[in-house]
Fold this protein.
Amino acid sequence: MKVLLIHGLGRSPLSVFGLSQYLQQAGYRTELFGYSSQIESYTQIIERLQQRLEELEPDRYGIIAHSMGAVLVRSAIAPHSSFKPHPVILLGPPNQSPRIAQLAQRLSLLSPLAGECLQNLADPSFYQQLPNLAIPHIIIAGTNGPRGTWSFFGNEVNDGILTIKEMQLDDCSRSVILPVNHIQMLNNPLVQQTILQILADPASKQKSFPT
């Protein structure tokens, strides 16, 4: 079985290389889908991803997407009912416009580096037209972000970048909540072991988001 790995915003395929090696050692074939938010428009990235999914579709394959990669998956798969990857695992997905992206956009901290992708993340209207995934998928969400008086997130449960609420999807009843943070989760042993369990048995690991 092949697993397509998609990295997050401002990262490169190198960020998922360790996870790729881990999965290969477990007997899976992996492929890294790379994109540049500085050079490519959002539409160009989606078109390339759709083209690759069309090529993969005749065979069984799964998808693991981190952060912005999960948004790309939603945009690429939803218009094409013929796409049937299984399982689809979304790691720390910004499923609602993250407040940290809105702040970065206002302050222009990351805009020159992130291009249209960051603009979309920071735009609530983009999310209003972004379709939900109509195929089975699993969210892995972290809870190891800072909380308290001096935290950007206050007392909300978060992974250091996103709050739990920002990772939720209305139609997603399947999730795995782990004590990890957003940036390091790809190489976290607990996350990697959980991914292997899901790949082996996609019906396992059903939990609900904490309230």
